[in-house]
Specification:
Length: 162
């Protein structure tokens, strides 16, 4: 499995991400109670918290035989300088449960360490029980829960060593 960085200004990257999101409709149904919509990929590539720039955001596509099978969004130095924040780790439903998530997480951990970020953090919508199990198996521990009114449940904020 190879990875390549996706860029918000590249139409081919936006289209590839949109196609991937449409190959994982269960994710959007679980966390937003809707199917992936046009524009979701572009929004994902542009989303940034206050104080961060596109230089801090690294959005990756994971490829198998030149086909995009997954993606990850990693943000450098958020919410603290020594933390790398995972905004998304998602694989097409046909490629879930095959070990690709674990391989991708190792890639994200290596990138975080390269940035001198010793910690990885993620927020998972509580109704996404499959994702919560994955992150717990990967060594992530719950820090706290916070309301997430734009989603189908509270956000479970989790953290692990990079």
């Amino acid at each position: 499995m190879l990875n390549q960085r996706l860029l918000h200004a590249n139409r081919d990257d936006i289209d590839a991400l949109q196609m991937l999101l449409e190959q994982a409709p269960g994710y959007s149904l679980t966390i937003q109670n809707r199917l992936p919509a046009p524009g979701d990929a572009e929004q994902a590539l542009l989303d940034l918290p206050p104080g961060k720039t596109m230089d801090d955001k690294h959005f990756y596509a994971y490829l198998l035989h030149d086909n995009v099978i997954g993606c990850a969004d990693l943000l450098r130095g958020y919410p603290e300088p020594d933390i790398a924040y995972i905004g998304l780790l998602l694989f097409a439903e046909s490629h879930q449960g095959c070990g690709y998530g674990t391989l991708a997480l190792e890639n994200l951990r290596a990138q975080a360490r390269h940035w001198n970020c010793g910690t990885l953090r993620i927020a998972v919508v509580e109704k996404n029980t499959q994702a919560l199990k994955f992150w717990r198996r990967a060594g992530f521990a719950e820090l706290y829960r916070t309301p997430a009114p734009e989603y189908t449940g509270d956000a479970v904020v989790m953290q692990a060593t990079a």
